[in-house]
UniProtKB/TrEMBL annotation, chain A:
<keyword id="KW-0731">Sigma factor</keyword>
<dbReference type="InterPro" id="IPR014284">
    <property type="entry name" value="RNA_pol_sigma-70_dom"/>
</dbReference>
<dbReference type="InterPro" id="IPR007627">
    <property type="entry name" value="RNA_pol_sigma70_r2"/>
</dbReference>
<feature type="domain" description="RNA polymerase sigma factor 70 region 4 type 2">
    <location>
        <begin position="120"/>
        <end position="171"/>
    </location>
</feature>
<dbReference type="InterPro" id="IPR000838">
    <property type="entry name" value="RNA_pol_sigma70_ECF_CS"/>
</dbReference>
<dbReference type="GO" id="GO:0006352">
    <property type="term" value="P:DNA-templated transcription initiation"/>
</dbReference>
<dbReference type="Pfam" id="PF04542">
    <property type="entry name" value="Sigma70_r2"/>
</dbReference>
<dbReference type="GO" id="GO:0016987">
    <property type="term" value="F:sigma factor activity"/>
</dbReference>
<dbReference type="Pfam" id="PF08281">
    <property type="entry name" value="Sigma70_r4_2"/>
</dbReference>
UniProtKB/TrEMBL annotation, chain B:
<dbReference type="InterPro" id="IPR027383">
    <property type="entry name" value="Znf_put"/>
</dbReference>
<dbReference type="Pfam" id="PF13490">
    <property type="entry name" value="zf-HC2"/>
</dbReference>
<protein>
    <submittedName>
        <fullName>Unannotated protein</fullName>
    </submittedName>
</protein>
<dbReference type="InterPro" id="IPR041916">
    <property type="entry name" value="Anti_sigma_zinc_sf"/>
</dbReference>
<feature type="domain" description="Putative zinc-finger">
    <location>
        <begin position="4"/>
        <end position="38"/>
    </location>
</feature>
Length: 194, 80
């Protein structure tokens, strides 16, 4: 009994990050709340199978990822790898010369933080097909390892790496398009060799 | 030691902290001596930070945590 009460207290600290990821998965606040509630209920009911001392956070994200994939009839199990256009390597890096320096901060790190808005980053993630969006969320936002993500998605590590690589490039292209729409980019500045 | 092509190819795994210690050290050695690759590394490290920072900011719906506790509480009562 005590262990289950501990579960509520321990798990509750992860509720905000689970909600943020659930929102990027479902793209809907109400569905995201339902998904987190279902994750907690499943975790609570399966608590006997949780091994004390192992990573509770990873365990909860695994439950949530599986719940999402099953509930939303996900294409994850039979992904269509062709649904994402090929994007060249280092896409955004090679285009930084086209950004209007007068509209950018001096410090490189601040520059990146100021260059894109919160909504643009969130939209860029949400625009990814689910096959790519989930590994990108679990890695770039939540910081899970390839191995942890492979276990959550029940796919080989090589598949995680390839989906991350393609998903990240597609996200960079999307961010570049947003910057273009906001008039931050002058493509005539790009070296044609690039 | 890693060359430019190898370094750029493995930059993502390096940023993900997924390289072996030996391989990571080879990449670090290359980055220290190569301004171009160092630039690419810093760009992608900053981009990661920006994405993480911006995607994590999410306001919880009003009463979210209370409802979460309540739904677990109901389940406890339902089980008894």
């Amino acid at each position: 009994m005590g262990a289950r009460e501990d579960f509520t207290d321990d798990a509750m600290q992860y509720a905000p990050q689970l909600f943020a990821t659930a929102l990027r998965m479902t793209r809907n606040r109400s569905d995201a709340e339902d998904l987190v509630q279902e994750t907690f209920l499943k975790g609570w009911r399966a608590f006997d199978s949780y091994q004390q001392g192992t990573n509770l956070r990873a365990w909860l994200f695994r439950i949530m990822t599986n719940t999402f994939i099953n509930k939303y009839n996900s294409q994850q199990r039979r992904p269509q790898e062709t649904e994402l256009d090929e994007v060249e390597e280092l896409f955004l890096f090679r285009r930084m010369g086209a950004f209007d320096q007068s509209k950018m901060s001096q410090s490189a790190e601040d520059q990146m933080l100021e260059l894109f808005t919160d909504d643009e980053v969130k939209n860029a993630i949400e625009s990814l097909p689910e096959t790519f969006r989930i590994p990108v969320l679990l890695s770039d936002v939540e910081g899970f390892s390839y191995k942890e993500i492979a276990e959550m998605l029940e796919v080989p590590i090589g598949t995680v790496m390839s989906r991350l690589h393609r998903g990240r490039k597609a996200m960079q292209k999307m961010l570049y398009e947003y910057a273009k729409e906001r008039g931050l980019v002058d493509e005539s500045l790009l070296d044609p060799q690039d | 030691m890693a060359d430019c092509q190898e370094t750029l190819n493995e930059l993502e795994s390096y940023l993900d902290s997924e390289l072996s210690e030996g391989r990571a050290n080879e990449i670090i050695t290359h980055l220290k001596g190569c301004t171009d690759c160092q630039g690419a590394y810093e760009f992608h490290a900053d981009l990661r930070t920006a994405i993480k920072t911006k995607a994590k900011n999410e306001e919880l719906p009003d009463g979210f945590l209370d409802r979460l506790r309540d739904c677990l509480g109901d389940d406890v009562l339902g089980a008894e």
